Amino acid sequence: MEYLNSTIKKYLDDLASNLLAPGGGSAAALVSCLGLSCLLMVANFTVGKKGYESVQEEIKNIINKLNECKNELEKYIDKDVQAYNEVISTYKLPKNTQIEIENRDKKIQSALKNAASVAFEIMKISHNSIVYTEKLLKIGNKNLITDIACGVLFLFSGIQSAKYNVIINLKNLKDSDFKQKIKKEIKKIMTDTKIISKKILLKIKI
User: Fold this and answer.
1) CATH number at residue 73
2) Mean pLDDT for each 10-residue chunk of the chain (206 residues)?
3) Total domains in the fold of the chain
4) pTM of the model
5) Is 7 inside any structural domain?
6) Any residues with CB less than 8 A from the CB of 100 and at least 6 apart, and which?
7) Which of 44, 105, 133, 164 has its CA 20 to 30 Å from the CA of residue 148?
8) Sign of the Cα pseudo-torsion (123, 117, 105, 107, in order)
């Protein structure tokens, strides 16, 4: 099932059901995509508008960057589903002999690392997107500042949600070097995200 090309209702119904996937990681990607789309709307409503002639080159550059992030992030709506299904399938592998046990454990570790990596990429791409909000608030269409607020909040939620999905997959991972590296990067992303979000939301007064 490729949810990116399905209806919103199909995705929401499956997310609400007792299916193993989609789950929180995939939903995190979707939420961040909503945030990205809000920011892109603001940027696109700035193109060609009277009073914004001096920022056209800048705003078009932001649109290009955000579109790159959106196109990449959309893929993770399905990538997370695939990663989670892989984790589940490895836990179902036979463990009747020592060889089977070792093979199963090896594949579980690989699947967990992949699932953590997928969720971490959702964090990274979302963070790469939220960094444009300060510039967008400064030069973007002033009539859509609340949409910037929505974009920031959605991206913050997507990043925070993806973080939990990274951590849960790291829990049973044996590669301590990988775990430490990812946790360090998570901390940096979360710190920066909180600073940006707070700064933007304090500036939006209505």
Assistant:
1) 1.20.120.680
2) 92 95 96 98 97 96 97 97 96 96 97 98 98 96 96 98 97 96 98 97 89
3) 1
4) 0.94
5) no
6) 93, 94
7) 164
8) positive
